[in-house]
Amino acid sequence: MEIILLLIRLILFGVFAIAGVGKLLDLEGSEKAVKDFGAPEEVAKPLAVALPLAEIIFAVCLLFIETSWLGAIGALILLLTFISGILVQMAQGNAPDCHCFGVIHSEPVSKKILVRNVIFAILAFVLILSGKDNQGLGLFSSTNNNSEENFMSLILGLATVGLLAAVVFYLKKISEQQTQIMRRIEILEVTALDSSTGEVKREGVNQPDGGLLIGTPAPEFSLPDINDKIVTSVQLFAQAKPTLLLFVSPTCGPCASLLPEIETWQNDLRDKMEFILVSSGKVEDNLKKFAGNSVKQILLQKDREAALLFGAEWTPAAVLVNDDGTIASKSAIGDQQIRQLVEKIKSGIETGEKLLIPNSNGVAIQNAKLGMNLPEFSLNDVFDKTITSQSLLGKKTLVTFWSATCGYCKQMLDDLREWDKTKGMDEPNLLVISEGEPELHKTFALNSPIVLDSKRTVSNQLGMQGTPSAILINENGKVVSETAIGAEQIWTLIGKKNKQSTVIS
Fold first, then answer.
1. H or E element in which residue 162 lies
2. Contact 246, 276 (CB under 8 A)
3. What pLDDT is recorded for position 141?
């Protein structure tokens, strides 16, 4: 039994020593984790220091039989605190980073982490139940009666301490490159297409063709630049020129290697478009990494809040915004895709057309009709008034594909009716292309026309396959957006807050 108690002490010593040292090596990450678990701002920093110090103190106590019982009590208190915090976060549906072993290893809270902490708590409880005077074999004293047991426990203890020191040292060296390595792997995964399907399948992240729809109004944000001056998205996109947002990081190797090309693009296209670097971290780190040989506008996020708004989950990444403040490209992820995007931008600028770049990330958008002219049609609305493609010219129009029997359409009908009756002069017109009985559609009470296309002739030509779906047509009758599918995307397409999240039928 004494050997078992010694092993328990050594296991808990290793766990708490590695956790404490790992957190001390990344105090900034420790502070963020403490805040994420709900600690007030004013106590987060002291807790971020006190917690790893307590872990190290209790770890050292567990090495000695004279102090092991107290160490076990302290360890159990910490573990029960961790377990309570994890349960609260999981009950709220949150998954903050546990920062369990600091710079060495960290991951979002989960059932696996909960079970692991429960097991450690049981081990600590066993030591407490064994009593203050029965903590197993001693490592550094001669109180053990059996000299062979003394020798074996000493060797085991020294080997454990030595192994722990080696693990901490080498994992620290590996962790210094971990962020860059993992980011590069993610970029390679997301840009490598499956040879059989042509699609990327990866759990828990957006696909390359995900993110914001082309034609969607760019999200609003406000960020400080390197001079601590607040810059808003409204200011950025009001310059009558397209803007390329480049999402970078001072710890990103590929971002630094792309810098000379960014400066070349900026010089070649200076009069035709703007280049904005959106980064994170400290000002001095960003200046050291991205100052280069030309003046650049660098905006700093606290974390990745702006990047996530634009669907740019990795660095480097780029998104093009048109001069009217609408999204003009999908997120280009990695240096290769960014180069491809810039080449397409150059070609598009030369034509003088509004930029619409559907496959800048190497993935074609399914059913996209971007840039296509509205097909000629002549259909009667439910009140027997003729609506033609020519009648849509002169103002931007939201063309929706509907069905009287579509449950998801009915769910967003009240919101659509409200918007149709209250929309401003600067908002698009509305045309509903539907199928079903005219009398039923009359009860929708929309101000805008509803035309019936029972054979789906027009809707299929416009790339709308399911209901509800929608596209934007500009004043010249050209398709200027991807197909929005479901209420959430449709409301986003016209810059409205999502009123009701629905699924396509």
1. helix 147-191
2. yes
3. 52
CA 275 to chain CA centroid, nearest Å: 22
pLDDT of residue 3: 83
Q: Give Cα 236 to chain centroid, integer Å.
A: 23
- Is-contact 210 353, C-beta < 8 A? no
**Tokens found for residue 314:** 């990795």
Name the residue among 340, 329, 501 with its Cα closest to residue 415: 501
CB 29 within 8 A of CB 102: yes
What is the pLDDT, as a whole number, of residue 206?
40
Residues 12 and 150 reside in one and the same domain: yes
Q: Does 8 share its domain with 138?
A: yes
Under DSSP, the state recorded for 392 is: G
pTM (whole model) above 0.85: no
| Residue 254 token pair | 């590929």
Segments forming the whole domain that contains residue 478: 378-493
Consecutive 10-residue averages of pLDDT for the chain (505 residues): 86 90 83 84 88 93 92 94 89 74 74 91 94 82 51 55 55 50 48 41 40 86 92 86 91 85 90 91 89 85 88 86 88 86 82 62 54 84 87 90 84 90 89 86 88 81 80 88 86 71 35
Q: What's residue 191's pLDDT?
A: 45
If residue 335 lies in a helix (H) or strand (E), which one and from where to where? helix 335-351
Residue 419 identity (one-letter amino acid):
W
Reading the block at residue 221, the tokens are 């944000």
272 and 177 share one domain: no
Are 333 and 191 contacting, i.e. CB atoms less than 8 angstroms apart? yes
Beta-bridge mates of residue 452? 434
Integer Cα distance of 412 and 488 in angstroms: 10
Helix, strand, or coil here: 178?
Answer: helix
User: What is the arrangement of strands in the sheet containing 274-280, beginning at the earlier edge strand?
Assistant: 297-301, 274-280, 243-247, 317-321, 332-333
What's the confidence (pLDDT) of residue 168? 54
Distance CA 326, CA 354 (A): 11
| Domain end residue (candidates: 183, 211, 245) | 183
Residue 10 lies in a domain: yes
